[in-house]
Specification:
- This protein has 205 residues and is α+β, with helices and mostly antiparallel strands.
- It has ten helices and four strands, in the order E-H-E-H-E-E-H-H-H-H-H-H-H-H.
- Helix 1 runs parallel beside helix 3 and helix 4 runs parallel beside helix 8.
- The radius of gyration is 16 Å and the shape is globular.
- It starts with a strand and ends with a helix.
Length: 205
Amino acid sequence: MIKLYRHPLSGHAHRIELMLSLLHMDYILIDIDLTKGAHKQPEFIVRNPFGQVPVLEDGDVTLWDSNAILIYLARTYGNSNWLPTSPVLEARVMPWLSIAAGKLAFGPAAARLVTVFGANIDHDTAKNTAQDLFNIMDGVLSTQNFLAGDAPTIADIANYSYIAHAPEGDVSLADFPSIRAWLARIEALDGFVPMQSTAVGLSAA
């Protein structure tokens, strides 16, 4: 049975939970209490030397880094639609994984870290980065249904969670109709599971 070590409010971890669910996989969720530093304890560090969630255990395979895990799941359990084997189509997916680790992380994800976790990050800079990213993404999604083309791929899964929850970081989606339509298309996929809202998560923390 696949084990996913996660925090319920982590967008990085939700990427993997969402992918597992879309693949109709059986898996066990193991919550790591970030507020108590469980991710920095020796028993977790052996799973990920950087002390971060998510971590995926699949038999003898232990993986960390959400984008790497998405690639593993797509190649191991998905069909070629999630990560095309054609060099051209695969190359259309990969830039969005870089965006997820770059502009997304420093934009809407960082803005949410400020409001949800109290991170010491320049909130205005993060919100401006998010707005710049969303302007570009909205243009891309005005001409195609998904980020890498007209079918969902791990490009969409890597970017969905933090964009869907951008308003929690005080980043509005009101001016981005194509992004909102894209979010709705992902949420309509068979097997979709949402990420826990901050209202529930913080009250339970």
